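Hey, resending since the last one bounced:
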Amino acid sequence: MKSIEILKIVIDESLSGDEHKVLDLFRDDEVFTVLEKSDGDWYHFSSSSSDGEYFIRTLNGFETYFQERGCISEVMRFDDLSSAAMYFFSTQLKWCSHLEETESYSKNYFSIKEKILTHLNNAEVCFESEDFYPVVFKIRKLSEQIKNETSISLSHKKSLYSILRGMMEENIYYDSKSKVDLDNAFELIKKAVNECV
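The structure tokens again:
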């Protein structure tokens, strides 16, 4: 049986069919453990080579991401199951989209700032593995600036643009595994700056 079919059965039996209460099932890992052992369709709860949306357990917590033809993108990392479930079920399955309206939910889980920092962190880790330490230090400096300021500004956009341009000039942009994360961070910074204008 497919993972989403199993989840819908559990929702019917435990939550009287109310998909909006799906997060109640992820206060502990009992249901998640069952889903990990099930077959994925488009939604997967354990690593595989199939295309689709993923919500998996890692050594350090949980991850959600999109995978297509072996390429992984939109990676989000979480320390606990309930935070990961909140993100996954509201953004991917839209079962809890009503949560986005609450201030604490958007503040804690969906702020553009946190997404930018996640992408920059992913890129930094990737560059460390590729031994591009000058780029690592520039990304780290930009991340620290973003963490310490209350909003995203044009200076952040210019800093990341400078990093991307330098990578292109050194011919490391197109071959880097971190290209997607840096592109995503840049798009989010542009969006944040436009919203603030």
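The first strand starts at residue 43 and ends at 44.

Sorry for the duplicate.
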